[in-house]
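TEACHING EXERCISE
Course module: macromolecular assemblies
Task: Read the component lines below, then compare them to the predicted structure of the full complex.
Student: A.B.
Group: 4
Components provided:
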Amino acid sequence: MTDLNELAAIVDEAARTGTAIAQLTDAVPGLDPAAGYAVQQLSIARRLERGERRIGVKMGLTSRAKMRQVGVSEVIWGRLTDAMRIEEGGELSLSGRIHPRAEPEIAFLLKKPLAGRVSPAEALGAVEAVAPAMEVIDSRYRNFKFSLADVVADNASSSGIVLGALRPAATDIANLGMVMRIDGQPVQIGSSAAILGHPLRSLVAAARLVAEAGETLSPGDIVLAGAATEAVPLQAGRHVRTEIQGLGSVAFSVR
Ligand code: OOG
Ligand code: MG
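Instructor-supplied answer key:
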């Protein structure tokens, strides 16, 4: 029998030290997505034991562009901790990271608990604010290659998040143009409509998926809706900025 705790220690150690590893499914071909989520939960427990604090969740593979880029076509989710926060306008260090990529995101900040099967209107009712955001993903697997169970076990490649200024929950986010630039050059252009047709659907899915894991979204939680475009590799010295129509911009520098 596979020891899920052992697998959790492997992905956690890879993330903690920034060391690439083989896909877990190479050694454990029978690892299914449910076991992958169990590994994720155990690996996050290790982070919490080290003093990190849970700050919300991130949804992943909620757009065609993302699914195509990584070759996995299933919506996934992961857990965010305070250690992943990057200050808006601040610096992201490459040290301790393997092959980080940036992607444009929309973030929800919640004011009410949310879990289970909820309507888009109920989901919106739990939102305190929305914000332009970027996520830094850094798969712990060599060459950024993984199966569904692998990426789920690896906490959906979570590595960093940066949030821009908060906007009212009533802001229309259905179809907002977004541009991500590196050193001023556009590297990705997309629309929030690429996120499951409407980013709010991603929050609806988050409520359902966390409930399946016996958890809830809580007041104060951040929920990332998932990238609308492909992610772009990062190099030292670059400035990364995303502007979202009507939401403003968010930026960081890489060192
Ligand atoms: C998995 C994480 C996907 C998103 O926004 O779609 C994700 C990956 O691409 O490595 O964060
Ligand atoms: Mg993402």
